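Blinded run. Sample ID left blank on purpose so nobody reads anything into the name before looking at the predicted structure. Input follows.
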Amino acid sequence: MQRALGRNFRIIELANDINSHMPDYVVRRLLLALNKHGRPMIGSRILLLGLAYKKNTGDARSSPAIRVAELLLRMGAEVRAADPLVTEPTIISSAVARVDATPEGIAAADAVVLLTDHDAFTAADVGCHARYVLDCRRVLAGANVETL
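Blinded prediction complete.
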């Protein structure tokens, strides 16, 4: 990437590279956490919280959550996704069940991945009911929460 002055802005290129590989990193961290808890990825029920690109919006265009879901499906996980603001049904694979983030749904998941920290996802519901949470937004705390 070059500007009008002909200088190479390497820091921007590096930031873009890091951002584009973040979904792979999230899935790798989740895989390691499941293994640590004696669970294989194949057949594990994973609940993704948030499909939108950013907090409290319904815009999922270019959202890394879509790539995370695709990677998890390829690895054999049973993927569910909750996002009360993203209403477009075709934004994600039909193999991903769209669900509400209820306490029962959170408790039924082997792992919960907080990808978008919508206000609708209350810390009490996620923290109290989840067996394991990978918090990609650094907004939750607790013994069952691992932050990215």
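Unblinding after everyone has recorded impressions. The chain has a mean pLDDT of 88.
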